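I am still getting used to backbone structure tokens and would like to learn alongside you. Please make up or recall a protein chain and show it to me in full. Would you write everything just below, so we can both look at the same thing?
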Amino acid sequence: MKAITLSIRHYTVLFGAFVVALSVVLGLLGLNQYRDAVEDIERIERQSAETELQAAFGRALRDLQQGADQLSDWDELFQQLNSPMHYAYWYAHRIQDSPSLEPRFTDLMVYDARGQALAQLPANSLPPGLDVDRLEKQFLPVGDDVHVILLRALQREGDPAIQGYLALRAPLLANMRRLQGFNRIDSNTLQFRLPQATGDSQRVQQHVEYQRIATTSRETMDQLIWQLILLLSIAVLLPTLILMFFFNLHLGRAVGELSRVVATLRSEGVRSAQEILDRNRFFRIRELDVTEQSLIDYQQDLLSANAVLDEKNRELWDLAHRDSLTGAQNRRAFDTFWQTLQAMNERKPRTLRLMLCDVNRFKSINDTYGHDIGDAVLQAIVQCLHRAIRREEQLFRLGGDEFACVLIDCDDMQATLVATRCEREVAQYPFAHELGIREPVRLSIGLSPVAESATTSVKVPLRQADVAMYQSKRPASGSICIYQESMESVSGMVFSSSINEAVYRVIEQGEGLLMHYQLVRDMVSGGLSYYEALMRIDHGDRLIPPSEIMPVVESRHLEKELDQAVIDQLLKDLYDSTIPVGTGVSINLSAVSISDPGIVDRLEPFRHFMQDYKLVLEITETALITQMESANAHLADLRQRGFLVALDDFGSGYSSLSYLTSMPVDIVKFDINLIRSLHDEPHRRLVGHLLEFISSAGQETVAEGVDSDIVMQRVRELGFDYVQGYLHGEPELLTPIPRITALP
């Protein structure tokens, strides 16, 4: 999004508009608050009117009931019950034409004990008969009013017998106005809109309409509020106009000078900008003067620092893209170079060959003569390769003892000549005299043509060069090989296309990897301690075992990627509760992963399961760990985070004991060959001494490959802590335990 640039005058206008808008907003907010207050007052007045109405209704109803109770004791009513033939005369003279009936009621009717009226009177508005079982009051709609019908049983005091019944009719509005002085309600506007007769007084109150008595206080408050808003607007807008004039006249000039200083620094330099600053001006702002001088000083310092910064950037790039041991460029530089080469090849296609080299038997040299000599060998190899390749080509160390070079404008014949020079330079180097190495140091070199497509992935030529390089290690093959498709299926090679496809599908797509688990049993309790996770690849009609997987992975240098796929699958199995809670799992990690600086972060998700599981890291291929110091630091860090470290296949190599004494280890797993040779007495005594030595150092031991009761008995006699083998369980898939989710 492009920034908007405005002058100080525009900002002044915007400031004024902002103040006006803010004043309007605040005024509207205040007005809204006032309206809320008015609504609250309106609600309170409405509630007061409702309360007043309910009080008037209740008072009138109670008064009518009291009047009905009084009339039910009138002696003349009992006389009429005794002489009903005179009731019509009595009603005409005592009720209609005389004030004998109280002013509360408008009509009256007397009924005998059966509920029948004493006489049928046309002028009487009450019903001719009653249901004596239901003497309930009734509310009858009459225009805008409601009449109340009250019923009372007539019986003499002290006489439980009911002699008759009395019905009274009374207008509700007239009685409410008679008894209640209304303060909130205009009594002349009271109206009942009862749709039909009912005996529920609450329903009657729900159908009343009225108007409240108007007050003049609200109009007065409205006038005061508008006057207050007007005064506040004047109090805000007048100072705002004054400030706008000040900023536009004085601050605008000062800021304009600052912009001229910056423009002059950019176009003419420091001296011209200093001249602008030195000019006399009546009105100055100290902070802006300091800023202008600081800009000039900063520009001078910046010019001086740019040269130093450029030099440091070159040094930093070199550190990030160059191998610190050999001086060759590293894998990051190789990836960057490949991307640049692709961009150039898109504009102008060129003939390319990828050369991949590694040192024969470098692992043996490293273990025999030590890491210092191994490092010196790699440094010498780089010197030889630099002398052999052409001047315009670059050398990259991809990792370990593997080096790569992209040969530009080069066909197979020319590439073979370059590779031959590399081989000759290394063969002529005096390794025996300089480094004391008695064995010959030789290279295996693979060459791969690079497709002319600008989008070619670097993985394709690297894999092909890798295949060719490993072909060159075979007997009867030269030390330099050019990739051919037939190499993929050569007998004895590990580059079966189906296995290649399965491995890359696991690493790149995360598909096909299955984890089988073999239990490790506690020798003391006899119970399950933890499982060892063993990988398989589901490849349609069969499961590919590790013995077929690992040669492909090692030849392609995919150990780190495969370990990550195993880590991801194990985490999934833990989240799915495939591994029973309260047990544990051991993870086999390669030497490449243990030396990787990111291994601690890659294993960090497992800490979520530390409370419920025993987590063991099994370190294999210890002899291949070229950066032992960093590997030990990583293992120590992981142990502090709660992981246990197990040294796998102990006794399978001549350097195992040295690794045991130098690496941070909690568990030692004796190699299967040591366990299966326990029938030999000297061998058994040797294993027993090793076991005693390791146990005294505080490390636990595991016997691998226990597949019979006889071997089990020998392992128990020696005192191993744990046992693992087909006798106790083969590697198998575990079934996830469904999670129980609480109902909402």
Q: What stands out?
A: The CA atoms of residues 67 and 459 lie 108 Å apart. The chain has a mean pLDDT of 82. The radius of gyration is 52 Å.
